[in-house]
Amino acid sequence: MSSLFQKRMYINGVETNVFTQSDTTLAEVLREQLHLTGTKVGCGEGQCGACSVILNGKVVRSCITKMKRVPDYANITTIEGIGKPGALHPLQKAWAIHGAAQCGFCSPGFIVSAKGLLDVNDSPSRDDVRNWFQKHRNACRCTGYKPLVDAVMAAAEVIRGDAPAESLEFKMPEDGRIWGSKYPRPTAEAKITGTLDYGADLGLKLPDDTLHIALVQAEAHHADILSIDTAKAETMPGVVAVLTAKDVKGKNRIFGLVQSPYHKGDGWERPIINDTKVFQYGDVLALVCADSREEAEAAAREVVVRLDPLPAYLSAPEAMADDAMEIHPGTPNVYFTQPLIKGDDTGPIFKRDDVAVVQGDFVTSRQPHMPIEPDVSFAFKGEDGLLHIHSKSIAVHLHAFMIAEGMGLTPDQIALASNPMGGTFGYKLSPTSEALVGVAVLATGRPCFLRYNYFQQMTYTGKRSPFHISARMAADRKTGRILAMEHDYSVDHGPYCEMGSVLTGRGIQFIGAGYDIPNIRGMGRTVCTNHAWGAAFRGFGGVQSVFAGETLVDEMAYKLGQDPLEFRYANCYREGATTPTGAIPDVIALPQLLEALRPKYQEAKKRTAKESTDEIKRGVGIAVGVYGAGADGVDSAEVFIQYDPDNGVTLGCSWEDHGQGADIGAVGTTHEALRPMRVPVEKIRFSWPDSSKQPPAGPAGASRSQVVVGSALKAACKAMMEALSKPDGTFMTYEEAMAAEKPTRFDGSYSSMGSVCDPETGLGTPFVNCMYTIYQAEVSVEVATGKVKVDRFSCVADLGAINNRLAVDGQIYGCIAQGIGLALSEDFEDIKKHSTMIGAGFPYIESIPDSMEVEYFENNLREHGPFGASGAGEGPMVNPHMAVINAIRDACGARIYRLPATPDRVLEALQAI
Ligand code: MCN
Ligand code: FES
Ligand code: FES
């Protein structure tokens, strides 16, 4: 029996009593006993600040504050005590209008932290705000921090009386048009008040008979499973079931989406619960289902697992060695290849005397996604007879399809819903815990809940797949034109194949993208390894390709004695150019962007030259980025809109919201499409995705939603207006439509017109709508230590017409921050070292410059995009890291060939000069 003590506190000004234990955390008391779920728990390790509260005037992280340390009668302020929906604090209003809440999971913690600052200093400088967030470990993965500092500064002005309260309100344009504006996203208010329920919050609302799941996981990379003894665990208090592979009713595999005959496996190699072998660290061997989380975890520790270790292949070269065994017996470790044959044979070109050649061997990192909210799923049997699974899925229909057969169901027996999510950045294009909670419900008949801790988030979700690339480029010495390129690359995709072939295809599509290269020979291969499985990650394959391509371009400029910007200007896509896969670019955007960047670049060159010293060398680097908005080939979406009795509409579209802004994306597009009907924006209702309620709109991946789902929404709006138009040019009200027996539900669909790349030659037009971004970074390199600091960032972007400026600014700032992490610190190679946010090199505010500027060009309206829009989610992610890497080269001559550019690698590169 547990012993308790009584604690009296003033929570948000109200005297509150709890009976608790010494080692219980304040976060647990607030969330689980007092149901103040505005306080979020992310890392649970004191590293993210999501759980910040104010305790007796000091900002503390409640996840590491034990109740024994909370003084009696302590005054505690949580987000609920700062402001409420309809009665927002200036900080919350500022958060909304500055787009400071994307996924919003970090927002309550940041707002509470900022309140703690403004309580002691209502005139902070931007640096004061940045230092405060650094000191309190407030981490954000979405926003690049700049909008957060903007918001605090704006709120402080109002609090001091230096600016009117209205300065924190959005001003509706006179014509009522929100397309292209900074209209705050519809979910902002719920996010900034802490009232939006994420997965763990919803878990607290499940009935009392809900079972908690603890995982028994493999602590080996590759092994045969000899035995799993659950006998003792089954007798532990509160335990209802201990499930192993034999308890899974279906095929016990997650389908890896193999469709191509060129793919050597069958796609059924990923177990739900591993049965015969362990393929990677963390693979699940058993599920313990118990009445409480503590009981489940205690019993999981008593499950006895015997493994027979096998050789672990932790990189592509190791798994490709002649003596390496097949990780999935019967399928070669190299299971997919994609050649590229464009133009003339490149061999003779490289031998010519009049060409300059540059080359390199590149390795990219296993970048971890590091959302602040770890993975969470729950499931239950519905009154409708369906198995309901709620998770962070960004592909609800696809995931139901991928996991159904493994559980012995058909996809239509599953209702897969996505909860509000604290960021995924692509890892959730893979199913993670969905099938685990599904299996548990099917076995026990009770609702089941599973939340990963941050170690599990790091070790048992997919990662960015490292590319090992050898590449070379030839250019005419006299004309400076690129003539040819060759590359050969191996993709370390971990043990499970899902999306491996698509990812491998990205190499041929994007190494050298942006430049007119007439002759290319390339070969990519997908390799099965025993490191973390490869998942989608924002800028999927583009990031890795740009590392090689933009290094070669930069080095070629140096070799030819040309300025890096001017060399790019001379060689970038113009009329008549073709992409690496031989397609005609959708628009000609790059010359205009480079022209716009040129004055900023020249200014930066002068500034860095002036500020450089022998100890601290400064430099400027640029990088071109091109990426497709849409999945390869034909990409489709289906949606509907429902006319509501108050003459508003509810959107029946499964556009999943990682945090990027599916709400504002769908609402903004619909508002624009229904402008003739003048439906007020507040009456356009976003609904959270559920595969049983909405038709398949496709995943929120591949930066496809604004383009593909947006076009389907536009089609549904057109159908609605055609059906409800009246002869006088107005439209029927809902009542009139009912009286006239008109339908109130209107379907819309859209298919894009691309063609997948040819499996033999690699040629094709996979994307008919692309995003174009060019970044410029300024860095300082400390020569003695190899430490790099990023001082400034600029971006010029052509993303077509922009739906929402706040959303798109936020995408770009967030990509800059993730790009800096990718360039300098982030990795997941060493399971021990890299399994926490700090250990994996998460970029806090001090690593991200406050100086970031973005300029858009919207004159290239996209033919295949609603109202001329392209995407925004990933284009801006493919190249910021390269601007940093090129800036290091400019600063000190050190060329980095392996990411991340940690101080030891920079020093090594300096020594190699
Ligand atoms: N948008 C716009 N105008 C445009 C293009 C886009 O206003 N011309 C807006 C859209 O309305 C949407 C956002 O920008 O709010 C991104 O749109 P889009 O490029 O269509 O991308 P998706 O909605 O399909 O989102 C997925 C994309 C991907 S693939 C990853 S990974 C990703 C990302 O977006 N993960 C994110 N952005 C993220 N942002 C956050 N905060 N968290 C993640 O996990
Ligand atoms: Fe408490 Fe991360 S610091 S949840
Ligand atoms: Fe900060 Fe998503 S808005 S983590």
UniProtKB/TrEMBL annotation:
EC code(s) of this entry: 1.2.99.7
Coiled-coil spans in chain: none
Keyword Oxidoreductase belongs to the record: yes
Statement: the UniProt record of this protein carries the keyword Oxidoreductase: yes
SUPFAM superfamilies: 2Fe-2S ferredoxin-like, CO dehydrogenase ISP C-domain like, CO dehydrogenase molybdoprotein N-domain-like, Molybdenum cofactor-binding domain
PROSITE patterns xref list: 2FE2S_FER_1 (PS00197), 2FE2S_FER_2 (PS51085)
Family: Belongs to the xanthine dehydrogenase family.
UniProt-recorded name of the protein: Aldehyde oxidoreductase
Organism: Pseudodesulfovibrio hydrargyri
Gene of this entry: mop_4
